[in-house]
User: What shape does this take?
Amino acid sequence: MTTTAHLGANGPGPTTGDPGGAGEPGVPGRLGGLVWLVWRQHRLFFGVLLAAAAGGAVWCAVLRGRAAAFIDAHHIDGCSMISLVARCEGTQEAVSEFRNTYNLALQFAETGMLLLPTLIGLFLGAPLIARELEAGTHQLVLTQSVGPLRWLAAKTALPALVVVTAMTGLSAVFAWLWQVVGDEVSGSYWYSTLDFAALGPVPVAYSLLALAIGVLAGLLLRRTVLTMGVTLAAMVLVQVALKALRPYLMPIESTEFGPKESAQLPDNAWLVGQGYYTRSGAHVPDTVCESAGDHEACLRSHHVVGQYMDHHPASHHWPLAWIESGIVLALTAVLTVIAFRVMRRRHG
Assistant: This one.
């Protein structure tokens, strides 16, 4: 006969006769003791996150249907405010109306996708371990035949699974919306800060990174509010650093334009640099003659024969997204390994 060691209001713990923490007997399909405890402790945030993801997905799907109907009715697919496409002639007013109607909602969705990973780090990752260590409740769990590494694994694995599920679903639906409203018709392009951070694997990877930062900071600082501040600062720092690095994650393409050609790239190309090229093929910056009194004479003195533009075409979007996500996930893995090493060193 076994006796149950309760862990207070946060949920049932493993039984003294069941070191593995299999949960209460006779309850089919119930989660194991540790996992069940983690679920009970954080079920409010899990529920809010999953509900927000489901609500956001429904909202994006409705927005997509309405935007697609407007685009089809006004025949403005692929049209912009100033378009060289013949079929887009005379559609400027319709494009302007579309943007006035839908761009605010689109920017709201993009901003939400950008902020969600940081919010996950602040309100899930940061308190996940720090609150336990600050209150001392971890000591009760670790006396129930539960090793510290096993406890940390349970505390991080279930939240990570919930985060991946919520963010993957939401990101997929947002990408489905963006296929209709992105690029020319809305003037919102894949390389913008909001769109790049909201599309594909990027928000999922940053969400896991925010979780890992919060867990490690909580282990080291053991104070919830301080951990939240460090998590926020670290996420901002990483995002700013990778945004600066982003143009160089893949080789940049360069297009040269002759002296009589109009230097213009497709609207969906990401311009990252431009200037002039000389007879020898050398590139000089576009500011080389900025302060010259005679601009044309200055260009001739530098033997300039045309202009160049360095850019990423639209085909680079998904490779860049996966490369950046890979970097973020690698950083997440490193932080997770460090967290487990810190846990083993401090708690055996």
Notes: The longest helix spans residues 92-135.
